[in-house]
Write a structure and sequence with these properties.
Order of helices and strands: EEEE
Helix content: under 10%
Number of helices: 0
Strand content: over 45%
CATH class: Mainly Beta
CATH superfamily: Ribosomal protein L33
CATH architecture: Single Sheet
CATH topology: Rubrerythrin, domain 2
Mean pLDDT: 94
Shape: elongated
Number of strands: 4
């Protein structure tokens, strides 16, 4: 069986609020760690979210 191209990743807030998003990532085209600027409702502002493993 072939390896899946997409995996689920957890995007954790850099504001240390504990808030996170779960999204998909194509491992063949995006080899580095993903970073996105998204809204953190706990901090009530847009902050950077970084990729972490789903446990």
């Amino acid at each position: 069986m072939a390896k899946a191209n997409t995996i689920k990743v957890k995007l954790v807030s850099t504001a240390d609020t504990g808030y996170f998003y779960v999204t998909k990532k194509n491992t063949r085209t995006m080899t580095e760690k993903m970073t996105k600027t998204k809204y953190d409702p706990v901090a009530k502002k847009h902050v950077e979210f970084r990729e972490a493993k789903i446990k």
